[in-house]
Amino acid sequence: DTSKPVLLVHGYDVAQTELDCSSYFSGTITQLKAMGYSKIVTVGYYSSDRNCSVNLRNFDNTLSNNSTWKQIGKAFAAYVNQTYTSTGQVVDAIGHSMGGLIIRGAIQGGY
Q: pTM of the prediction?
């Protein structure tokens, strides 16, 4: 269903210096748009992330660059619930590398 928002969560960045979500996901965004998706949301969590639609630090001010994927998953769950689930909106989520763990953590809970 191409009307659902697609949330893109990036992976671990060893340097943690200015990860650019637009550049990181450029190929994925291009392909999703070609498939008819228009609601594409890039999700960041490092303090220096840029060009991300949302940063999870706005949903959990205890996050740091050293937070575990489970802690970030909890913040992702709060974001999805507050922004989408609470209004009955269903989303798709795509994670690259650690981004997949973050999504899994949000779904499974167990923080």
A: 0.95
Instruction: Report which of 21, 34, 15, 14 is spatially closest to residue 94, judged by C-alpha positions.
Output: 21
Count of all residues that appear for the chain in the document: 111
CB 21 within 8 A of CB 42: yes
- Separation CA 92–CA 61 (nearest Å): 25
* Residue of 10, 4, 3 whose CA lies nearest to 52: 10
pLDDT at 14: 86
Q: Whole-angstrom distance between the N-terminal and C-terminal Cα of the chain?
A: 30
Diameter of the chain measured on Cα atoms: 37
Three-class secondary structure of residue 9 per DSSP = strand
- Average pLDDT (26-46) is 98
Beta strands 92-95 and 40-44 are: unpaired
Give which of 2, 3, 4, 9 is closest to 79, Cα–Cα. Answer: 9
**Mean of per-residue pLDDT scores for the chain:** 95
